[in-house]
Structure formats: structure tokens, C-alpha cells
Design brief:
The chain is an alpha+beta fold. The protein has a single domain, classed as Rieske [2Fe-2S] iron-sulphur domain (Rieske Iron-sulfur Protein, 3-layer Sandwich), CATH 2.102.10. The chain is 15% helix and 31% strand. The chain contains one helix and eleven strands; from the N terminus they run H-E-E-E-E-E-E-E-E-E-E-E. A seven-stranded antiparallel beta sheet has the order 1-2-11-10-5-4-3, with no helix packed on it. Strands 6-7-8-9 form a four-stranded antiparallel beta sheet, with no helix packed on it. Strand 10 (128-133) and strand 11 form a beta hairpin.
Length: 143
């Protein structure tokens, strides 16, 4: 391999790997769910998790004007959900979701979808919210 071909190959690899990783990180795109604000929390319809009649999202995001960070509602079972604030407890960067966990793009902390620290530098778990539900809705207690 000559020098020119070697440099082109290296450059392609350096540019291609991060792009490939971002595409493969999660086949599921972010879906911001509609929500209703009530006195002490939010109401999100369970139908927000439906993509079509056969496919269900693993998570939805909720963004409120009153909060600096979105809330991720992660579906952990057939009718089980966890709601976590997408704010890293280390340096307060907004978290990414994908691959069955939350990750901090700033310093590399990782959290389970239940909000527990998997990898530092963060040492504190994420803020999670109490959830109740009925047949149609998920109720998230914020206040």
C-alpha cells in the first residue's frame, strides 16, 4: 500500500467510525410525546409508545417549558415504566438515550434505564419520578 492510499484509508476510518457508531447506537428515533400538565405532574397517553399496530417504542421523551431538561419515560416491561430526568448528576449535561441505557456526552457517565449509575465519573443516581398508571395513561408526579 502506498502512502497516499494509506492516508485516505486512515482518514475514511477516522471520519466513518463515529458516524457509523451514531447510526448504530439506536435504531429507534427520539419521539417527543404529547403530555398534559396537571397540578402536580404530567399525563402521557400510553398510545404515545405505539409506532403502529405491531411495534412499540421502548421510550418516549417529554419536554416541559418549566424544566431545563426533558424527561425520558422508558418502558421496562409490558406495562412497567420508569421516568428519569435527562440531567447527568456529574456536571449536569443533557443525557443521550440508546442501547438500553443513558449516556453523558460530556464526560462518559452511564446510567441504567432505572436511573442507577453504571459508569462514572457520576456517583449519584438520576432523578426519577413516581409513576402511576391506568389502562390508558401514565401519570408522572413532578411536584
Amino acid at each position: 500500500m502506498n502512502r497516499s492510499k494509506f492516508i485516505r484509508t486512515c482518514c475514511s476510518t477516522v471520519i466513518g467510525l463515529p458516524l457509523s457508531a451514531s447510526l448504530l447506537q439506536g435504531c429507534e428515533s427520539l419521539h417527543y410525546a404529547a403530555s398534559t400538565v396537571e397540578s402536580n405532574g404530567l399525563i402521557v397517553a400510553k398510545s404515545e409508545f405505539l409506532i403502529n399496530s405491531k411495534k412499540v417504542r421502548k421510550f418516549v421523551m417529554v419536554k416541559l417549558e418549566s424544566m431545563d431538561y426533558p424527561i425520558c419515560i422508558y418502558r421496562t416491561g409490558m406495562d412497567d415504566y420508569v421516568a428519569s430526568l435527562m440531567k447527568c448528576t456529574h456536571k449536569f449535561c443533557e443525557l443521550n438515550v440508546g442501547g438500553g441505557m443513558y449516556s453523558c456526552p460530556c464526560h462518559g457517565s452511564e446510567f441504567s434505564v432505572e436511573g442507577q449509575v453504571l459508569e462514572g465519573p457520576a456517583v449519584n443516581n438520576l432523578k426519577t419520578f413516581q409513576i402511576t398508571k391506568d389502562d390508558e395513561n401514565i401519570y408522572i408526579k413532578i411536584g
